[in-house]
Design a protein that fits this description.
Layout (H helix, E strand, L loop, with lengths): L1 H13 L13 E4 L5 E7 L5 E7 L2 E8 L2 E3 L9 E16 L7 E15 L7 E9 L2 E8 L7 E7 L2 E4 L3 E5 L13 E4 L5 E2 L3 E5 L4 E7 L7 E7 L2 E6 L8 E4 L2 E2 L2 E7 L2 H5 L3 H4 L15 E5 L1 H5 L15 H14 L3 E3 L29 H11 L2 E7 L4 H17 L4 E5 L7 E4 L6 E4 L4 H16 L3 E4 L15 E4 L19 H5 L30 H10 L4 E3 L4 H4 L3 H9 L4 E10 L3 E8 L5 E7 L4 E6 L8 E9 L13 E9 L3 E6 L4 E7 L4
Parallel strand pairs: 22-23, 22-30, 23-24, 24-25, 25-28, 28-29
Antiparallel strand pairs: 1-2, 2-3, 3-4, 4-11, 5-10, 6-7, 7-8, 8-9, 9-20, 9-21, 10-19, 11-18, 12-13, 12-15, 14-17, 15-16, 16-21, 17-18, 26-27, 31-32, 32-33, 33-38, 34-37, 35-36, 35-38
Length: about 675
C-alpha cells in the first residue's frame, strides 16, 4: 500500500489526480491497517493545511481545510510549513467494565504531522495527529508548549469535511432552543443546514459514514455546518466570554471522527470513539452494576402527580415505599423518585436557584425511604434537577453527593431543563451570572466536575439535557448514560409524540455516540388523556434490544406494568450488560434487529424495532454456538395488527428450538417490533 501512496503523491504533483488543484507540497500519507482507507495531508497554494481521504482508491473526502480562527491574534490557518512527520501503529484489545460488548479491539495506523507558521504569521507551532482505522478515522489538533503562544482564544475551529459521493443524510438541527431533543430529518446530503453530531450519511454506493467527535474535554462541542454543496465545517458552541474556547498550552483538542462502513451493521458495530478516549481513569468500578429500574416519573409527565409539593405531590414517602415493594417483587434494582427535594414549588424551569440537594420535601423522608429500600434489597436512585442553574448546583455538589453516599444511593439522574443558551453559570464576582450553552466549554467542564465528584463517592451519573456523548464512558465508567435526544417522555403528550420511525432512526444516529436513557417499557401504550403511542406492545419489548443502556427503565406506572405479566417477565429477564452485540437486520430509519449475548450467561436475546411500514424479515441464527440447541421464547406482533388502532396490544407468543444455521421469518407490524429470549441449554 505504501507504494500506492507514493504513486498517488506523484500523480498529485504531476497534476493528474483529482486532488492536484489543492496540493502544492508533497502529500504526507498513511493508510489503514488493511489498506482500505488512505488519508493524506498537504499544503495548498496559500500554505493552508488540507486533508483528504480515499476509500478503495476512490475519493471519499475531498481536500478539506484545517485550523482555527482566534479572537486576539492572527488566525492559525495560513502560512504553514510541514516540518516533519512521524508514524506509529497500534493493535490492542481492552475490556469494558460494562457495555454492548465485553472486548474491544483498537487497531490503527497513526500519522503525526508537525507544522510551524511563517514569521509574519507568528512563528507558532501546531501538530495534527491522525489515526486511520479500517472502519474510520480520527484526528485532533495538538498545541505544544511554545514561547510564541501561551493561551489560545479560539473564535472558531476551521475543520472541514468535504464529502465527495452523493447520498442521503439523517440529521437534527444544531443550536436550536430544544437542544438535542428534535426529530431527525432525512434529506440529500447537500440539503443539510447546521447539525448536531453524529450526522449519519448513506452514500449512493451503499457506503455508510457518520461524522462525530471523541473525548470532548474542556472544549466546546461542535455543530456541523454546511458551507456549500457537500462541504461541511465545524462550528463551536458559543460562550458568554467571546472566545468559544480558551485553553492554556499545551493541550489537545477532542478528536474529530468519521465512522466508515460498507453497510448499516458496520456503522453500528463500531467502537471508533471509544478507542479514541483515554483508558479508565477511575480504577475499580465494580460498585456500579448494570440494572433495570422503575419510577414515579410517567405519572408525573402525564399530570397525575406533580413535582411540586401539594395535594398531588408525587414524591411522598408512602408512594416511594409502594414502588420499592413492586421493584423488589419483580426483580428491579432501583426506583427513581423525582421531586423529593426542596425547590420545585417555584418557577424552576431555566432558573433553579431555589433547589436544595440536601433538604427533603415535607412529605418525603429520605432516610426512611433508603432504609426501607435497603431492607427490600433495592436502591433508591437519586435525582438532581438544576433547572440549568449550575452555579447553585456546584455550590452544593459535594455535600449532595456525600449525603447520597451516606444513605446508600449509588446512582443519580441529573437534569438541566433550560432552553439552549440558558445555562446559568457562576461568574468571577460574587452573584455574577453568565449565560452559557448546554454544549459550550463551560458546561463541558461542569459535567466532568459532576462525574468526578460522584466517582469520589462511588456514585454513577445519568445525565439528562446533557452535552452529547463522545465516548468518555471509557475514561469515566461511572458516566453510565445520557438522554440527549427525544426520549419516551415525548410520548406522554400527544402533541409532541415521537413518530414510529423515530427509534429506528436513533439506532443509526444518536446511539452511535453512546448509551441513551430512553426509558422504554410503557406497556399501556398511552400518554396523557389516553393518547396512544406510535408503538405496538411488542415494540416496547424490542426497545430493550434496540436502544442500549446499562440502566434500563420500565417507565410505565406500576399498576399498568402489573397488567402485562408476560411482558413484565421479559423485562425482568432481559439483561442490561452484554458480552457481544450484532445488528443482524437493519436499514437506517426503517428497522433494526439486534442479537445480543448476555455477559453473565450463555443466553442470547434478539429483537428490535420497525417504522410505519409492515415488513417481513428473514433472520439468520449464525451467531449461535455450534452444536447447541437454544429454547426461544418469542414475542412478536400478531398478524395484521398496526400501531394505529386498538390491535396494537396483540402479541403472537411462541416457543421453539433454534440452533446455529436456522432461519426465522419475522413479520413486523407498522410501528411494531419483536423480542425473544434464546435460553442456552443447561450444562
Amino acid at each position: 500500500m505504501k507504494a500506492n501512496l507514493f504513486a498517488l503523491a506523484g500523480l498529485i504533483l504531476a497534476g493528474l489526480a483529482p486532488h492536484a488543484a489543492t496540493a502544492q507540497t508533497a502529500p504526507v500519507c498513511r493508510s489503514s491497517p488493511d489498506g482500505t482507507n488512505a488519508l493524506c495531508v498537504a499544503l495548498d497554494g496559500d500554505a493552508r493545511l488540507r486533508w483528504w481521504l480515499d476509500r478503495r482508491g476512490h475519493p471519499l473526502i475531498a481536500p478539506s481545510l484545517m485550523g482555527f480562527t482566534l479572537t486576539d491574534g492572527l488566525n492559525l490557518v495560513r502560512g504553514w510549513t510541514i516540518t516533519g512527520s512521524e508514524t506509529a501503529s497500534g493493535d490492542d484489545t481492552w475490556e469494558q467494565p460494562w457495555g454492548e460488548r465485553r472486548y474491544v479491539r483498537d487497531h490503527y495506523n497513526e500519522l503525526l504531522v508537525h507544522l510551524v507558521q511563517a514569521p509574519d504569521q507568528g512563528s507558532r507551532h501546531m501538530d495534527v495527529r491522525f489515526r486511520i482505522f479500517d472502519n474510520g478515522i480520527g484526528f485532533r489538533y495538538e498545541l505544544p508548549k511554545q514561547a510564541a503562544l501561551t493561551t489560545l482564544h479560539i473564535a472558531d475551529e476551521v475543520t472541514e469535511f468535504a464529502v465527495v459521493p452523493k447520498g442521503t443524510a439523517w440529521w437534527e438541527t444544531g443550536g436550536e432552543w430544544n437542544r438535542y431533543e428534535q426529530l431527525y430529518q432525512k434529506t440529500p446530503i447537500d440539503a443539510v443546514a447546521t447539525a448536531h453530531t453524529p450526522v449519519t450519511m448513506r452514500l449512493d454506493d451503499g457506503t455508510h459514514i457518520a461524522i462525530h467527535e471523541a473525548a470532548l474535554v474542556d472544549y466546546a462541542a461542535y455543530w456541523l455546518k454546511r458551507e456549500d454543496g457537500q462541504r461541511f465545517r465545524t462550528t463551536l458552541a458559543p460562550s458568554s466570554q467571546g472566545p468559544r474556547v480558551t485553553r492554556d498550552l499545551p493541550f489537545n483538542t477532542p478528536w474529530r471522527t468519521m465512522r466508515i462502513a460498507d453497510d448499516a451493521a458496520g456503522l453500528v458495530e463500531n467502537d471508533l470513539e471509544l478507542n479514541l478516549n483515554d483508558p479508565n481513569a477511575l480504577g475499580d468500578v465494580s460498585w456500579f452494576k448494570p440494572q433495570k429500574y422503575i419510577g414515579i416519573w410517567w405519572n408525573m409527565l402525564k399530570g397525575d402527580w406533580t413535582w411540586a409539593e401539594g395535594p398531588r405531590h408525587g414524591a411522598t414517602t408512602q408512594r416511594a415505599k409502594e414502588y420499592l415493594d413492586f421493584a423488589a417483587a419483580h426483580g428491579f434494582s432501583g426506583v427513581l423518585i423525582e421531586g423529593w427535594d426542596k425547590g420545585w414549588n417555584s418557577n424552576w424551569l431555566g432558573h433553579g436557584a431555589d433547589f436544595s440537594y440536601t433538604r427533603s420535601a415535607d412529605d418525603f423522608n429520605l432516610k426512611a425511604v433508603t432504609d426501607y429500600a435497603r431492607a427490600k434489597g433495592v436502591k433508591l436512585i437519586g435525582h438532581h434537577e438544576t433547572g440549568g442553574n449550575i452555579a447553585n448546583y456546584e455550590a452544593q455538589l459535594d455535600d449532595a453527593m456525600k449525603l447520597y453516599a451516606s444513605v446508600g444511593v449509588n446512582m443519580v439522574k441529573t437534569g438541566y431543563v433550560a432552553d439552549a443558551g440558558g445555562i446559568e453559570a457562576p461568574g468571577d464576582r460574587p452573584g455574577e451570572v453568565r449565560m452559557e450553552w448546554h454544549d459550550g466549554q463551560r458546561q463541558v467542564q461542569h459535567h466532568l466536575k459532576v462525574v468526578e465528584t460522584a466517582a469520589k463517592y462511588h456514585i454513577a451519573i445519568d445525565t439528562h439535557e446533557p452535552v452529547k456523548d463522545t465516548g468518555l464512558r471509557r475514561t469515566y465508567p461511572n458516566w453510565v448514560a445520557r438522554e440527549g435526544a427525544r426520549g419516551m417522555e415525548y410520548n406522554a403528550h400527544g402533541a409532541y409524540s415521537n413518530p414510529p420511525e423515530h427509534e429506528a432512526t436513533l439506532v443509526y444516529t444518536r446511539m452511535l455516540s453512546g448509551p441513551m436513557d430512553f426509558t422504554p417499557g410503557v406497556l399501556s401504550l398511552e400518554g396523557d388523556l389516553h393518547v396512544p403511542l406510535a408503538s405496538t406492545l411488542a415494540k416496547q419489548l424490542g426497545l430493550y434490544l434496540a436502544l442500549y443502556s446499562p440502566i434500563q427503565m420500565a417507565a410505565d406506572s406500576i399498576d399498568h406494568l402489573a397488567q402485562y405479566p408476560r411482558e413484565l417477565e421479559f423485562i425482568r429477564q432481559v439483561p442490561a450488560d452484554w458480552a457481544q452485540s450484532h445488528l443482524i437486520a437493519g436499514s437506517v430509519g426503517e428497522y433494526a434487529i439486534f442479537a445480543r449475548q448476555d455477559r453473565n450467561s450463555a443466553d442470547w436475546y434478539v429483537g428490535g424495532v420497525n417504522d410505519a411500514t409492515a415488513r417481513t424479515l428473514t433472520l439468520h441464527f449464525d451467531f449461535l454456538d455450534a452444536g447447541k440447541t437454544y429454547r426461544a421464547t418469542i414475542y412478536q406482533d400478531a398478524p395484521g395488527i398496526t400501531y394505529l388502532d386498538d390491535s396494537r396490544h396483540r402479541i403472537a407468543y411462541a416457543t421453539r428450538d433454534v440452533k446455529k444455521g436456522d432461519v426465522l421469518t419475522l413479520w413486523l407490524a407498522p410501528g411494531g417490533g419483536a423480542a425473544m429470549r434464546l435460553a442456552a441449554p443447561k450444562p
